[in-house]
Design a protein that fits this description.
It contains 4 helices and 12 strands, in the order βββββαββββββαβαα. It has helices spanning 59-64, 139-155, 164-167, 181-188, and strands at residues 15-16, 19-20, 24-25, 31-32, 42-48, 88-90, 96-98, 105-106, 113-114, 117-118, 124-130, 160-163. A 6-stranded mixed beta sheet has the order 3-7-6-11-5-12. The chain is globular, with a radius of gyration of 18 Å.
């Protein structure tokens, strides 16, 4: 009797049309096409929590989906009607969500300038960390961020990683002083990527 050899299937691809296999998906309507010939070589790290400093709720996902109840908290009045998104969102326990295909232009950077280019939304991937600017972030968030950056760099020509504070100085301060850029740089271990201390 011959023994059947089990079929070996090829590994599933990490990406499908800009969607990362290991992220939970919730598609945001707040995106558009990238300009023709845009070279996606920048990752922008942000921090966000709604209301500020409160973690664990679904308000950030609601904001990116245009379903936030503006009357649910006094702070929300200051951002009423805001239409924004990021490509990715990393929660305090390291859980990863994706809202916009990395092939598309998410609305995360706003007025910005970096690497001698303006309008960083055009050619960047935005990653939000659940947190408050100036506060620290969790080890699980760094672990997820490092893994995500490595996966992004396998598919997109990433050359720079910067904070929102670096691409919009004076207007934005996130992720802030509590974010450990050296830890991220060591975790990524890529000399090809330029971090904020070496770029402007």
């Amino acid at each position: 009797m011959s023994r059947m050899t089990p079929e070996v299937l090829p590994p599933a691809p990490l990406w499908s049309d800009g969607w990362y296999r290991f992220a939970r998906q919730q598609r945001s309507p707040n995106f558009g096409p990238r300009p023709e010939r845009a070279r996606t070589d920048l990752v922008v790290v942000h921090s966000i929590s709604l209301p500020p400093g409160q973690y664990g709720g679904d308000e950030v996902m609601a904001l990116f989906g245009n379903t936030l109840d503006w009357d649910a908290h006094p702070y929300f009045e200051s951002i009423r009607g805001l239409q924004v998104s990021a490509h990715f969102y990393i929660r305090r326990q390291g859980e990863l969500w994706q809202f916009v295909s990395a092939n598309d232009r998410a609305w995360h950077a706003g007025a910005s300038h970096y690497r001698g280019r303006s309008n960083c939304n055009d050619d960047s991937i935005g990653i939000e960390l659940e947190g408050l600017e100036g506060d620290s972030f969790e080890p699980a968030q760094y672990e997820t961020l490092v893994s995500l950056l490595a996966a992004i760099a396998q598919t997109y020509p990433i050359r720079y990683v910067a904070g929102h504070e670096h691409i919009a100085p004076g207007r934005k301060n996130d992720p802030g002083a509590g974010f450990d850029w050296l830890a991220l740089q060591r975790g990524l271990g890529s000399e090809a990527v330029v971090f904020p201390s070496a770029a402007a």
